[in-house]
Amino acid sequence: MSVQRPGPPPPRGPMGGGPPGMTMVPSAEKAKNFRGSLRRFSSRLRPERGVAVLVLALGIASVFLTVLGPKLLGNATNLIFDGVMGAQIPAGVTQAQAVDHLRATGQTRQADMLAAMTVTPGQGVDFTALAQLLALVAVVYFLASVLSWAQNYLMAGVTQRTMYRLREEVDAKLGRLPLSYFDRTSRGDLLSRVTNDIDNISMTLQQTLTQLVTAVLTVIGVLAMMVWISPILALISVLTVPLSFLVTMVIAKRSRPHFAAQWKSTGELNSIVEEMFSGHELVRVYGHRDQAISDFDRTNEVMAESSFKAQFISGIIQPALMLISNLNYVAIAVFGGLRVASGSMSLGDVQAFIQYSRQFTMPITQIAGVANLLQSGAASAERVFELLDADDQAPDSDKPVPLADPSGRISFENVRFRYLEDTPLIEDMSLEVLPGQTIAIVGPTGAGKTTLVNLLMRFYEIQAGRILIDGIDTRDATRADVRRCFGMVLQDTWLFEGTIYDNIAYGADAPTPADIERAARASFAEHFIRTLPDGFATKLTEQAANISAGERQLLTIARAFLADPAVLILDEATSSVDTRTEVLIQRAMAQLRKGRTSFVIAHRLSTIRNADVIVVMRDGSIVEQGDHEQLMAAHGFYYDLYQSQFAESAE
Amino acid sequence: MNALLSRYLRPHRLVLLLIAFLLLIQVVTNLYLPNLNADIINQGVITGDIGYILRAGGVMLLVSLILGISSVIAVYFSARTAMRLGRDIRGDVFRRVESLSLSQVNALGVPSLITRNTNDVQQIQMLVMTGLTMMVLAPITAVGAVIMAIRENAQLSLLLIVIIPLMLGVISIMIFKAIPLFKVMQVKIDRVNQVLRENLTGIRVVRAFNRTPLEELRFAEANANLTDTTLKVTRIFAMVLPMLLLVMNLSSVAVLWFGGHLVADGSMPIGNLTAFLAYIMQILFSVMMAVMTLMMVPRAAASADRINEVLNTVPDIVDAAHQQRPDGERLGHVEFIDVGFRYPGAEEPILRGINIEIPSGTTTAIIGGTGSGKTTVVNLLPRLLDVTEGSVRIGGIDVRDTPQEELWAAFGLVPQKAFLFTGTVASNLRFGLPEATDDQIWEALEIAQAAEFVRTLPEGLDSVVEQGGANFSGGQRQRLAIARALVRRPAIYVFDDSFSALDYATDARLRRALRDCVEGATVIIVAQRVASITTADQILVMDEGVIVGRGTHDELLLSCETYREIVDSQAEVGAVS
Q1: Between the CA of residue A226 and those of A331, A332, A355, A556, B445, what are the distances in Å?
Q2: Given CB atoms, is A573 within the 8 Å cutoff of chain B?
Q3: Is residue B164 located within the same domain as residue B196?
Q4: What's the pLDDT score for residue B93?
Q5: Angle (deg, nearest 10), helices B270-294 and B296-311
Q6: CATH of residue B13
Q7: Which of A6-15, B95-104, B500-509 has the lowest average pLDDT?
Q8: Which of A200, A421, A631, B328 could make an SS bond with A638 (beta carbons 3.0 to 4.6 A apart)?
Q9: Contacts with A315 from chain B: Cβ below 8 Å
Q10: Cβ–Cβ contact B305 with A under 8 A
Q11: Residues 225-254 of B with CB under 8 A from A
């Protein structure tokens, strides 16, 4: 959620304010190269350079005018005060005479004060001058607001356009990254980079840039004004800054272990809730409910206690800062009062000074907060840049050979492939597959059967040799053309959030409803689809949690039916689909395989025995290939595998 | 939301009163400070009375301290109250979910229930925490400041009649325009993230079907939508703050102008002018703070609605008013009489006209295709679901008339998904029988063919089970889940496709061991492999919610076409991997 916290809050009353707890967001993560990432990110703002300069100029102007305000208002107070004093002195008496008179009567302090004022004796408040001055102030404030609005308005465009470009770039990058990148990187990590980190950058950008600029400028401006008005009072105000930091740091440090305890117990509680809800039927039938509740209560109690301590201790920061700011206020009121009384400072200046000192603490707290945000934003930017810096897959050939209407003849010529440079995998594989043939890939779990799929689909690039489709080197064709030759049904089903109809339709470019129903029927998915409340229009949730694993698989099969490819890649183990459905799928697959070349990750003896070529894989590499008779005669790994199978299923 | 809050805040009435009192002290002291400042000017500065200035300064210092101390105490109590409130709501939500039926839990959705029990409560808790300080403090301050301002000068206070509505106007424009946009924005962010997530998880499929350009289009659309909405929101906010500042600043100007006249004609001392300025700022600032806190309300209200939905869900499977106890001898006797089941709102029923009789001590197997209703049948037994037609009887008594605790005690359930809980091997096995001895546990492990691998674990029974049993293989989890049921020694065992992850040899050994162990108990097996069930006393073949065949293996081979199909298909199945 990137709610923009609307800019620098206005000057506080003497008691201060600000939502409690906001200053205490524990910074999640620190960037490895804070400056580098920040600089690199700033360079992304380059297309907005012109606007950015304008934004900065507007910011400077607006802050300058805002800072000018209290001083001018102070002058207005002085005008009024002068008038009040002037009215007390009879007309005809000069100011000097009045001062002398006061001194003579022993009222030395008042004499000093009066001496420092510009008083026209006998004359009250000069309303013409006051009107002019206040009109000026009004104009100054009005301009300040208009400029600040223009600044924010332009800045919104800058940040949003920058974020749009970043998101677009990341998405385009995902399209160009080789599959090996996705296999290598944990999915959760990648997801978190493209979603959480980008959200975080967006939030940081929105909240920090304008705030930081305005806050820094305000601090400088206010400090300048304070020093100008009274260096001694300015010193008192400046002293409160390190004091505030110190107090914040000390309290924050004390609250940290409690926050840690809070996160820990929150995690524990969440996992209890998750488990007990997920295993609901077990909890009930096993009579575990009372135990579950008492476990929950215990952790809940710990969590409430630790969060109370964390919230309370960190909650002290606000009142403590408030106290410091009030002490500052008192100090200014007293010292300022003394100095006005002694004539070395005007009343209006004290008033202005009080306003300035209130404006002073706020941006400083803000800068501290922004610094924290920047840290976490830079860490996120760093992680996104890492993604953007990853190597792209090799581009398609410049003059691709078209691969239209493939017959399904596939040859591997001396193919060499390794995932890791120093781990031999496929060293010299040759295989000739004629149109319509079936190739069974067998081997124990984890033997790397998907490696072949990866090579066929050009998800990975081979390091030597060639793979040809209809005599065309797959590297000379576009990836799109290569992939169009294949239809793939893997164990790992993937469906997106949308209707069942749309999910099946994914298989073809512009299928008609009749095509889709036919595909559903052919894959035996139609029956279960019809039992769903909305039939084909049933919306699948993102994880497709509203249908079973078997049903998911049926849908992906329907999708492959629709695609109608020349070559099929099938993962035969439909372990998540139960027996009867499996039978039907077997038949449908047999039907589908007719006239098509198929690579089958095989589990059934029938498929294996009838395959034209059996590729036997073990520990990631191909150890044998040939037909059933040849392999049995060879008495190798396949022979052993087959024997053990046979023995077990006879049991 | 109000109902939820008032219900859970009621026990804290006295503390709330105390907090209110402390806040009042804060307000009073806070408002007193500008007043003292005015005194310094009027009676100290103008008359040159340094002693007075110092004395008033001392009082200000004291007042500031009182203010600080009372705020700290207020924070203490509001944090305590908010956290206890969160704890209580969490506890009640958890208890309620634990009493709901399986179909109710599924209807609400497990992930959603988890969120409601955790994050949603967190939202409410934070609202109460800030609410107790800011939301109460702001209005009191505003009212107090108005009173003080009027005390300083009633005439000048008339300005407030103009200023406050102006301020509220600016703020309400912001709320009415921005809040709905915020909601839209969140939807757009979710959409962008969803497209990305789907692209990542389905990268192979996207590329296999050459849908990268399509996906990019989908993303570009979502991205542009998000950018548009965010831009609108931020541009509204771009205006808000400068406008609020303008209102405040112009108020100061107005105060000086009108105040100047009052000072000039002697109806107000000049020091009051400074105090008045301070009050105006306090009023406007309080109004702003209150509004900003109010912005938390819609989100918390949505959370409260979600929590209320859980708390207001009445468990649909509860003990009957007139309970009957099944006779202990016949506890293993199971009957289904004309049973039908339909999920609310579904087009077609899941089960129709199911009649089954399972005598005590016999083994019954259920086999059939996806969605044929096998799991539904077994879920009806321990009342994880209730029939919508007909009756399920155990020991001759309708399960709906049996006390649930007693009913459940009759079952050893091994569900389809071998779900283990975080803890140790022992704690998982004692799940249904906390008083089980180590010997009993080992015996169950032996039968479930799990003793061997548990023995090889360095910590044996005390080995840690990670969340979801992630540190065990699928086969190991399944065997532990079976052992967990065995420990209970129930009258009726239900194995819902519980042998699927075992290899043939283990499966065979396990079934042999099981046969002796469950002697006298009723066994109901939902199975995929024919081999697992050939020796059952009775096999039920299900298809699309009805029983299409029943009998022994040999009888069914002769009489049931569907069964033969299954047998034939499996004759050639030999898992290579």
Answers
A1: 14, 11, 10, 72, 80
A2: yes
A3: yes
A4: 94
A5: 40
A6: 1.20.1560.10
A7: A6-15
A8: A631
A9: 75-76, 78-79
A10: no
A11: 226-227, 230-231, 233-235, 237-246, 248-250, 252-253
Query: Chain B within 8 Å of A354 (Cβ-Cβ)?
Result: yes
Question: Average pLDDT, whole number, for chain A?
Answer: 80
Which alpha helices (DSSP H) does B109-211 contain, by range? 110-115, 121-130, 136-152, 154-157, 159-201, 203-208
Cβ-nearest to A10 among B204, B212, B245: B245
Q: Is the Cβ of B520 closer than 8 Å to some Cβ of chain A?
A: no
**Which ipTM value was assigned to this complex?**
0.80
Identify the closest residue of chain B to A508 by CA–CA distance: B209
Whether B204 is covered by a domain: the verdict is: yes
Task: Assess contact for A439 and A599: CB atoms under 8 A.
Answer: yes
pLDDT at A642 over 80: no
A15, A130, A173, A624, best to mutate vs chain B, most B CBs in 10 Å:
A15
Of A640, A495, A618, nearest in space to A554 by CA: A495
pLDDT (tens digit, 9 = 90+) per residue, A164-216?
A: 999 999 989 888 888 888 877 776 678 778 877 887 888 788 777 777 888 88
Mark whether B75 and B217 lie in a shared domain: no
Q: Are residues B143 and B19 in the same domain?
A: yes
Question: Is residue A22 pLDDT above 80, yes or no?
Answer: no
Same domain for B123 and B175, yes or no, is no
Q: What average pLDDT does the segment A345-371 reach? A: 77
Same-domain check for residues B402 and B456: yes
In this prediction, what percent of chain B has a pLDDT beyond 70?
96
Partner-chain contact B34 A125, CB within 8 Å: no
Q: How far is B460 from chain A (nearest CA, A)?
A: 23
Cross-chain residue pair A175–B212, CB shorter than 8 Å: yes
Domain membership flag for residue B408: yes
Give residue B203's identity as a one-letter amino acid code.
I
The reported pLDDT for the residue numbered A587 is 67
Comparing alpha-carbon positions, the chain A residue that sits nearest to B41 is A337
Q: Within a domain: residue B383? A: yes
The 10 Å CB-count burial string (b at 16+, else e) for A121-144 is beebbbbeebeebbeebbebbbeb
What is the residue range of B182's domain?
154-267
Beta pairing partners, A625: A615
User: B274, A354: Cβ pair inside 8 Å?
Assistant: yes
Q: How far apart are the first and last CA of chain B?
A: 55
Compute the distance between CA of residue B562 and CA of residue A534 in angstroms, rounded to an integer.
29
Q: How far is CA A259 from CA A253, A301, A303, A313, B134, in A?
A: 10, 15, 10, 10, 22
Residue A620: what pLDDT?
63
List of chain A residues whose C-beta atoms are within 8 Å of the C-beta of residue B270: 77, 80-81, 84, 347
Q: Is A250 within 8 Å of A244 (Cβ atoms)?
A: no
Task: Compute CA distances A576 → A440, A493, B376, B468, whole Å.
Answer: 21, 11, 18, 19
Residues B359 and B234 in one domain: no
**Mean pLDDT value across residues A303-319:** 88
**Residue B577 included in any domain:** no
Bridge partners of residue B495, in order along the sequence: B414, B525
> Considering its fold, how many domains does chain B have in total?
3
Residue window 361-420, chain B: list those with CB within 8 Å of chain A.
Answer: 367-372, 379, 382, 384, 404-405, 408-409, 411, 413, 415, 419
Report how far residue A349's alpha carbon sits from residue A70's, in angstroms, rounded to the nearest whole number. 9
Beta bridge partners of A626: A614
DSSP H or E run through A297: helix A289-341
